[in-house]
Amino acid sequence: MRFSNLHTHSTFSDGKHSPEAIIKSAIEKNFISIGFSDHSYTACDESYCMRPVQYPAYHAEIRALRDQYKDQIDVLVGLELDAYSVADRADYDYFIASVHYLCAGGDCFPIDHTRLQQEECIARLCHGNRLEMAKRYYDLLVEHVIRSKPDVIGHFDVLTKFGLFDDAGDDYRRVALEALDAAMKACPVVEMNTGAISRKVRTVPYPQDFLLARVLENGGEIILSADSHAKETLDCCFAESVESLRKMGFDHIVYMDASGLHKQEI
Ligand SMILES: [Zn+2]
Ligand SMILES: [Zn+2]
Fold it and tell me: Of 247, 141, 232, nearest to 191 (Cα)?
């Protein structure tokens, strides 16, 4: 099976390798296409993202590489659009909509950087109530997806990264499922994100199986996504992910190339 990855970070944001090194790696892996989704600008944290002034150079470099390698692979220019960012959809082949922060009252709490920061967010922003944090996170994600009209919903339940939520419990699951239903009305494509596996902080992809089952039940689509920050991890755990999707009852996934989204049997 030939793969494709749309969720790729290069040296334009917090990735380790240049776009060209990543494209060469994708060609070696016999990919159908490779898409770049460097981080959009977030004013509350400039440490990992592109500045708006960099966007034109980003477009220019990826488009030049797209032309240079067009006989070997489809190269796409996208953006991982944070909920606190703005960008013009017309400038990109696709958007992945993600939430990385919860901000209020001048404070900005990263969702997926460290466990300590998440605990601070629960304590200071959410009255010590973990379910309240889950509601705030999912409310922001749904609002972002409806407003930004992305092509893909990014790492849907990334807030579970540090194991602080009762993700087997009914209350958490109800909040997450209601959010998934609402978000999928605006964007039916959800990524199965293996990024935390390649960074060795998890052993399973986002989202959890009960959410993947709901994507299937809702008639939505799954796109494999490595959330890759290095050229070696562009297809991390893709074969295993396809196998687990097949076992859950999926008969296809989707991928994107230069002509848009396509179904691929699994
Ligand atoms: Zn992200
Ligand atoms: Zn990412």
Answer: 141
189: containing domain: 4-99+146-265
Minimum-distance ligand to the CA of 98? 1
127 in a structural domain: no
Angle at CA of residue 182, ends 209 and 33, nearest 5° = 65
Domain count along the chain: 1
Residue-wise pLDDT for 50-85, tens only, equals 999 999 999 999 999 999 999 999 999 999 999 999
Which of 195, 193, 247, 254 minimizes the C-alpha distance to 219?
Answer: 254
Closest ligand (CA of 85): 1
Tell me phi and psi for residue 194, to 5 degrees: -100, 10
**In sequence order, what are the beta bridge partners of 35?**
76
Mean per-residue pLDDT, 34-40:
98
Question: Per-residue pLDDT tens for 170-181?
Answer: 999 999 999 999
* Two tokens, residue 217: 């039940």
Give domain status of residue 57, yes or no: yes
Q: How far is the CA of 238 from the centre of ligand 2 (A)?
A: 16
DSSP one-letter string for 89-100: GGGSSEEEEE--
CA of 98 to the centre of ligand 1 (A): 6
Look up the CATH number of the domain holding residue 35.
3.20.20.140
Task: List residues bridging with 79 in a β-sheet.
Answer: 95
Is the pLDDT reported for residue 42 higher than 90? yes
The one-letter amino acid at 94: Y
Which pLDDT value is given to residue 168? 95
Strand-pairing partners, residue 192, are 224
